[in-house]
Amino acid sequence: MSAEKQQMITEPVDNAWSMKIPPFKCEDNIHGLVEESSFATLFPKYREKYLKEVWCLVQQCLSEYHLKAELDLIEGSMVVKTTRKTWDPYIIIKARDMIKLMARSVPFEQSKRVLKDDIGCDIIKIGNLVRKKEKFVKRRQRLIGPNGATLKSIELLTDCYVLVQGNTVSALGPYKGLQHVRDIVLDTMNNVHPIYNVKALMIKRELMKDAQLANEDWSRFLPKFKNKNVSKRQQPKLKKNKKEYTPFPPQQPESKVDKQLMSGEYFLNKEQKHQRKQHERAAKEAEAVRKQKQRREKDFIPPVEESFKGLARRQTNNEEQKLNIKALKRKMIKANSKLKKV
């Protein structure tokens, strides 16, 4: 490698994303690879027809990098191998990612972009992030959005190709965009709507255009969303209000003997106690008889008659109302006679 390239890599860089990776050419590795490397991956049955049609293009694409590709339809696997002419040691890893994406239903036109140096891929497993299947399906559909609108907006903001398939999300694009895609997918499966992250990315894109805000903190510009999820735990109908805490124990309740001592009943003999109970019973019966008598005589009590002044007022009010009705009738007759004349 030349001295200029070594200097570019060894020098400290403030922003690693702004650094351009120098291209790795055939002249940088004249001797080639010492041993053969190979990777294999399985593919589902429904991908067999598509892979048979496209496999000639796959072999042609990999032959440019001096790689071999084999398709085993009996076993259901794809294999990529290096040859003696292969000079790039990392291209076999890129080829492995390409066949993995093709197995996950990514079309060949998109998956072959992984072979470029500035393009990477990420296969995010989402199947084990949500326990209930119904919730998993709803959150996965939320990531796609109505008519794929949410997924399309994620692709435009991150410059990545995103495909939701089964229990995985396949992403393909620049490395910085892949980080954003992974964050959005994981937040969505953790019940955070993807539109929040999409809004934040849109604001960041606008802030990047302003040179004055390049070295400032952007957190004040980004939206802050509060979690409004309410616990769905069933609340009891009758709630017991907690009493105020007091360090002193409550007063001991009075026993039956204490109450008898207070009232003086404790010192009475049996006959006196019996007489006292009879007196109490007789008093209760008398009270009940009195209440019963009042209730029966209530219907026979005459109502309170109004005074002469009240009756006079009522009569005057009725006469005024009658006079007003007569005046209204006269007005109506006059109005009808005028209309007839016209």
Automatic annotation (TrEMBL):
Domain of life according to the entry: Eukaryota
Coiled-coil regions listed in the entry: none
Biased composition (Basic residues): 229-242
Biased composition (Basic and acidic residues): 280-300
Major site of localization recorded for this protein: nucleus
MF terms in GO: RNA binding
Domain annotation K Homology: ranges: 120-190
Assembly with partners or alone: Monomer. Component of the ribosomal small subunit (SSU) processome.
Chain segments carrying region Disordered: 229-256, 271-319
The name this protein goes by in its record: KRR1 small subunit processome component
Localization in the cell: Nucleus, Nucleolus
Family statement drawn from the similarity comment of this UniProt entry: Belongs to the KRR1 family.
Role played: Required for 40S ribosome biogenesis. Involved in nucleolar processing of pre-18S ribosomal RNA and ribosome assembly. Binds to RNA. Required for female germline development, cell viability during eye development and for survival of dividing cells and epithelial cells during early wing disk development.
GO BP terms, alphabetized: rRNA processing
Keywords: Coiled coil, Developmental protein, Nucleus, Ribonucleoprotein, Ribosome biogenesis, RNA-binding, rRNA processing
Any single Gene Ontology cellular-component annotation: small-subunit processome
